[in-house]
Amino acid sequence: MGLSFEWTVKLGDILTMCGAVMVAAAFLYNRGGKEAGDQMSLNALSKEFTEMKSEFKAFSETLQKIAIQEMKIDLLMKWYDELRRGEGYIQEPRRANVDGEYKR
Fold first, then answer.
1. What is the DSSP letter of 77?
2. Which letter, b or e, does each residue of 77-99 get, where b requires 16 or more Cβ atoms within 10 Å of its Cβ?
3. Rounded to an integer, what distance in angstroms lies between the CA atom of residue 70 and that of residue 48?
4. For residues 67 and 62, what is the distance between their CA atoms, to the nearest angstrom?
5. DSSP letter assigned to residue 95
6. Which residue of 3, 46, 81, 88 has the fewest CB atoms within a 10 Å radius of its CB?
7. What is the pTM of this model?
8. What is the C-alpha separation between 78 and 69, in angstroms, rounded?
């Protein structure tokens, strides 16, 4: 009384097995393909954000330099106006000894 195994295979069994393998492969490919596509998109976005971050940093540095230059220009214009009115390096008490270019 031994167990026996029947080794006969029908064409329908082979087609059913191939169909099941193809469906499983298609499911796994679609699932993996979408995840791989999403991963590639995320990598591309990460790279773009890194590039934008460096560009914004350069832009920020440029704006800081412009602000410093504007401050220096304003200070120089103030000094120029003071010197033009006879103020600045020549102090008021000694102003009487210096002939000014402009009358008050």
1. H
2. eeeeeeeeebeeeeeeeeeeeee
3. 33
4. 9
5. G
6. 3
7. 0.43
8. 14
Cβ neighbour number for residue 12 with a 10 Å cutoff: 8
Q: What whole-number distance in Å separates Cα of residue 29 and Cα of residue 17?
A: 18
Two structure tokens written together for 46: 């990460």
Contact 102, 85 (CB under 8 A): yes
Whether the Cβ atoms of residue 77 and residue 59 lie closer than 8 Å to each other: no
pLDDT in tens, 46-77: 999 999 999 999 999 999 999 999 999 999 99
Torsion angle, alpha carbons of 18, 20, 26, 32, to 10: -120
Question: How far does the chain reach from its first CA to its final CA, in angstroms?
Answer: 133
In angstroms, rounded to a whole number, what is the distance separating the alpha carbons of residues 93 and 99?
13
